[in-house]
Amino acid sequence: MPAYVFKGKTRAGAATSGERTADSKDAVIALLRREQILVTSVKEKGKEIVLPRFGTGITAKDVAIFTRQFSVMIDAGLPLVQCLEILGSQQDNPNFSKVLLQTRQDVEGGATLADAMKKHPKVFDDLFTNMIAAGEAGGILDIILKRLATYIEKSVKLKSQVKSALVYPIAVVSIAGLVVAVILWKVIPTFAALFAGLGAQLPLPTRIVILMSNWTVRLMVPGIIGLFVGIYGIKRYHDTHKGKRVLDGLLLKLPVLGLILRKIAVARFCRTLATLISSGVPILDGLEITARTSGNAVVEDAIMETRKSVEGGQSLAAPLKQTDVFPPMVVQMISVGEQTGALDTMLSKIADFYEEEVDTAVANLMVLMEPILILFLGTVVGGIVISMYLPIFSLINQLT
Length: 400
Known about the structure:
Strand order of the largest sheet: 2-1-3
Largest sheet: 3 strands, antiparallel
């Protein structure tokens, strides 16, 4: 039988490791459980491959997969502690495994699941822990976990759509800028020296390109330093209260992209609030959590102003309309949901509609950006090439 190397913890919490001989990895885990050892890793001896790990942070996708698996196991009737132990020992991400095993230990020590998860706010945010608390209080933890899994999966999809809308044009423009900079820095000076040696009369486009090349050579290093300083300065400004609101407001006002970001904000607001309300979280707590998870300072301020009005006795729709952040259709549908007593259902329908709108808008943006970027690259690179060949054509005509 093969030998396996394991690492784990005793019931007292002390780290332990060693070797066991068994038919399979699962048999080793079962054997160690009988010895009251909480297994964190098991590998067959002689086959351990140590690879460098990059980016060991816990992603939203990790949490979504865990939540979906957790809901299935709870629905199947497995004890809470056993679910956390199994999921923690099977995690590929060592950081996430450590968090889950610590949560399991806290629950086993008498803490509620929500309180145990609140000790890890970077992994389980306020929305997650408040919904877990509502599920535990109402005895519907399996249903709450399913809702959470669905919510996180849709949230991950929205984030990927934002990245796809931003990464493609930024990457193309960056590569184009790099290519043009290399041409101006290395190629154009060679042509300039050639033309100077021949004493050719340079046309205006060629003189402009050579002037740009001279400036690029002189300002290359200061320009790169200035770029990094500018990025750092913008980041620091965004970290301030005023800067975050100014920059987030500018993002919402951008042509095309601003409309997509606004739709994403509306979809996230409706999906989050619907999930919280349907899970039994009070409306004021739900609005506060939704504001903190909105991802945009302007939207966050609008939701918090709405919360103050609701706390003062107003309905949800009226203060939302006054913010001028949410479209009229959204306000009208929320008003209907309040009047019919089906606010969570109406919010879910709005979220579904705007998520489809985001899909369509991102697809249209990609279709629109491709010809524009191709035209831009062709104009810039082609203009530089033609400018360099114009003096050559002039010299050939003179010689002829």
